[in-house]
Write a structure and sequence with these properties.
- The protein is an alpha/beta fold.
- Helices cover about 35% and strands about 20% of the residues.
- It contains 15 helices and 18 strands.
- The strands form 3 sheets. Strands 2-3-1-4-5-6-9-10-11 form a 9-stranded mixed beta sheet. Strands 16-15-14-17-13-12-18 form a 7-stranded mixed beta sheet, sandwiched between helices.
- Helix 1 packs antiparallel against helix 2 and helix 4 crosses helix 10.
- The radius of gyration is 23 Å and the shape is globular.
Length: about 475
């Protein structure tokens, strides 16, 4: 598209804003893009783009998947434009182009990888056509913002360009129902020993067939609405997967993935052992293979990557394991997945919770009652320490879930609650579960836990391998 005077003006002023913010050591991941779009509303249409664009959307795992794709590409010599340090809306993507393109709008990169907020896809796809769109999952999220899965799926469905290939989770029927008239590549995980015949979760967002309204029949459930299912009336159901995880070797940290079209298998080094992160890894690998990278090149790069520390981190202090795990507030599915991960770890443990959505002044707690707090009731849970402005509400939910009152402790202050109540002598591990907007508190609690463990058991501190 021919560039207009408005475009050049927007690019010049946005570049100036970008430079000024960087000189001031301020985050330039939003404002320059917002300025460019205000001056030239179709800025994203006019800007030159790389020949391949990978978009990553969905309810959970967008940051992890897009970072994983980006890291592997860069390790293999690709010049990548991304929004990994900025907004995942149209303004953040515009800011990424301002930062990477020349002042005339000329592209300088081989490929683009953009994390895309689900609700913003309708604004982004007006001007950008992803070569590939990865959608790892669609599930219940913030009630105030995202209403219901059908609402979000409808937005994405109406936005996806006709020329985009959709890479999506064949085990998630809401994802399967996306983009039914467009080219799709399905990935999934073969049946696991932990799959169940009945849904263990409070929330199950796909009960009826989206095509004809008949009750779906599940062969097995993995979690919530994810599993293997079919409609007995119209034939809608779990599709044949193009790429499939056939074996997960937790002991040797290997994930075996089969390319069903080529009938070949390859074992990749596991980045993280939670089922959500195995799905994240699988979706990233499928996207990277479409770009043309070999199994060997992808695996060599994955061996060097890890989940970003803001999402997941493990330490060891004096033989006691500390796990810091993001559990998004207002997101019952994400929290339930984290709670499920914690309950399946066999060691005796203390759980520290502060899941307040700190950027919301009028935070709702309805999501507590869609979240499986019942998963925290294991006999190997010695303590649950709760803090934050919603700590009393959390205690009520834990008691309703059947949690023993004598194991639950609370204080409004995150660090003070640890100082008062953390008793490490009878435990083997500590799980710190925190909200996306509590990174400062997370690190303060982390340091306090380490200090108490050091004072109790000795001074040796080493990174958990």
């Amino acid at each position: 598209m021919k560039k207009t005077f408005k475009f050049y003006t927007a690019m010049f002023l946005a570049k100036c804003a970008n430079k000024s913010l960087k000189l001031l050591r301020r985050n330039a991941s939003y404002f320059p893009g917002n300025l460019a779009l205000k001056i030239c509303p179709n800025f994203l249409e006019q800007i030159d783009k790389p020949p391949i664009i990978i978009g990553v959307t969905g309810t959970n795992g967008k940051t992890t998947v897009s970072n994983m794709i980006n890291d592997v590409l860069e390790d293999n010599g690709y010049k990548v434009i991304n929004n990994r340090y900025g907004s995942n809306m149209n303004t953040g993507i515009a800011a990424s182009f301002v930062n990477n393109n020349t002042i005339t709008g000329k592209n300088t990169k081989d490929i683009a990888v953009f994390e895309m907020d689900e609700r913003s896809t309708i604004h982004i796809f007006k001007y950008i056509t992803p070569t590939y769109l990865v959608c790892n999952n669609l599930s219940r999220d913030s009630l105030k913002r995202n209403a219901h899965t059908a609402f979000i799926a409808g937005i994405i469905n109406n936005a996806i360009p006709k020329d985009t290939t959709v890479i999506t989770n064949g085990d998630d029927p809401i994802c399967v129902n996306l983009a039914s008239e467009k080219k799709k590549i399905y990935f999934g995980i073969d049946r696991l020993d932990t799959d169940t015949e009945k849904c263990e979760n409070i929330v199950q967002d796909m009960v009826l067939c989206p095509k004809c309204g008949t009750k779906l029949e599940y062969e097995y459930y993995r979690y919530h609405h994810v599993g293997k299912m079919k409609c007995p009336n119209c034939g809608f159901g779990t599709p044949k997967r193009d790429y499939e995880t056939t074996k997960i070797d937790f002991e040797n940290k290997l994930v075996t993935i089969k390319d069903n079209d080529k009938n070949t298998e390859y074992s990749y080094s596991m980045v993280a052992d939670g089922i959500i992160n195995i799905y994240n890894m699988l979706s990233a690998i499928v996207a990277l293979k479409q770009v043309g990278l070999s199994d060997e090149k992808i695996n060599d790069a994955l061996k060097k990557t890890k989940i970003v520390d803001t999402r997941f981190l493990q330490d060891e202090v004096a033989g006691k394991k500390i796990v810091l795990h993001l559990a998004k507030g207002q997101n019952p599915i994400a929290c339930s997945r984290v709670f499920d991960y914690v309950r399946k770890q066999p060691e005796k443990k203390t759980i520290i919770l502060f899941l307040d959505d700190l950027h919301e002044d009028n935070e709702t707690i309805t999501w507590f009652y869609d979240t499986d707090y019942e998963f925290l009731n294991g006999d190997n849970v010695e303590q649950i320490i709760v803090s934050g402005k919603r700590s009393k509400d959390t205690i009520v939910r834990l008691l309703m879930a059947g949690g023993p009152k004598e194991k639950i402790f609370a204080d409004r202050d995150e660090v003070e609650s640890v100082r008062k109540y953390f008793k490490p002598k009878d435990i083997e591990s500590v799980y710190v579960l925190y909200d996306l907007y509590a990174m400062k508190q997370k690190e303060e609690v982390h340091q306090e836990v380490k200090k108490i463990l050091e004072d109790t058991f000795g001074k040796k501190v080493e990174e958990w391998k």
